[in-house]
Each structure stands twice: as structure tokens, then as C-alpha cells.
Amino acid sequence: MLTRFGYGLASWFRRKLVDPLNLILRRGTEPKQLAFSFALGICLGLFPICGVTVFLCGIAIAVLGSLCHAPTVMLANFIATPIEFSLMIPFLRFGEFVTGGPHFPLSSDAFKKVLTGEASWDVLQSIFHAVCSQFLHIFIHIHLFPVHYPHLHPKVCLDPSGMSDKSCVCS
Fold first, then answer.
1. pTM, full prediction
2. Which of 5, 37, 40, 131 is an S-S bond match for 69, by CB 3.0 to 4.6 Å?
3. Which CA distances in Å does 139 have to 41, 44, 96, 98, 168?
């Protein structure tokens, strides 16, 4: 029984993740575009509201157009889903800490109140805290990325003639 379950899980993993990734890689998309698309899908896939990530990825694909590879963005979003679920409570608690909001109790009774509609304001407030936490996390990473990884952050330099801006790594 256990070997049949293991085989089914390996088959599912191959069918849902490995085969689509191989198909994407064989189509000849540029590596830089694939990396950007995968990073975009993971970043949007970690948004702390369930179900919204698909719409965020769709909006990003529509706005960016040919700059990103749509199947890679969606595959990365799919891969990020378990990570999103595992980070829900830390984002919620960090958002409560940052905003100074009340503690939202996570218990079976709280789940019952959510299902019956008695805790609607508390749920909205906890979602707000989780989203604030996510935006603060993004803000911190955007501003600390050049400090921690200066060799990966390109700076804008002028070419010797001074006629146009070029992106280059300056010392």
C-alpha cells in the first residue's frame, strides 16, 4: 500500500511539475526571461490571501506582456502555494506585531466563527495585518538588496561620450 502511494506521489510530481517545466525549457525561451518569470511567480505566489495570487499573476502577465513568460509565472505560482500556506500564520503574527493590532485567536472555535460569519471584522482585520506584513517584507528586501548583494545590483553609468545612459556594473 505504501509503495503504491509513493509511486502515485512521484507520478503526480512528475506530471504536474517536472513535465511542464521540461516543456517550457524545450521551447527555447531565453534564460533571463525564464528567471524573471519564475521569480515573479514565486513573489506573487507568496501573497498572504488565498486565491488572489492567480489574479495577481494574471494582472502581471497582462501588464508585462512579452517581458515575462506566462506559463513559467503560473507554474512558479503553483509551486509557491504550499510555501504560501506555511507562511500564513507568521505573516499574520508579524502584521499584528507591526501594526499593534489585536491578537487573532487561531483555534477551532475561531474557525467555527469564521464559517458562521460571526468573526467577519476580525478576519478582515487579520487579513489587513498579513498584507501589511507582506508589504513591509517587500519594502525591506527592496531597500536592503543593494546593501547585502552589491555585486548583483547594476548601477547606471554614463558612457565615455556622455551621450546616453547604459546599465553597467560600476566599482
1. 0.62
2. 37
3. 18, 14, 17, 14, 24
**SS (HEC) of 114-142:** HHHCCCHHHHHHHHHHHHHHHHHHHHHHH
How many helices and strands (H and E) does the chain possess? Answer: 7, 2
Please give the Cα distance from 42 to 142 (Å, whole number). Answer: 16
As to burial, measured by CB atoms within 10 angstroms (0-12 exposed, 13-18 middle, 19+ buried), residue 100 is exposed
Spatial separation of the C-alpha atoms in residues 6 and 26, rounded to whole Å: 28
Cβ–Cβ < 8 Å for 72, 34: yes
Distance of alpha carbon 79 from alpha carbon 21, whole angstroms: 11
Q: Which residues of 69-80 are buried (b: 16+ CB within 10 A; e: fewer)?
A: bbbbbbbbbbbb
* Residue the block writes with cell 498579513: 130
DSSP code for 65: G
Pair 95, 137: CB distance under 8 Å: no
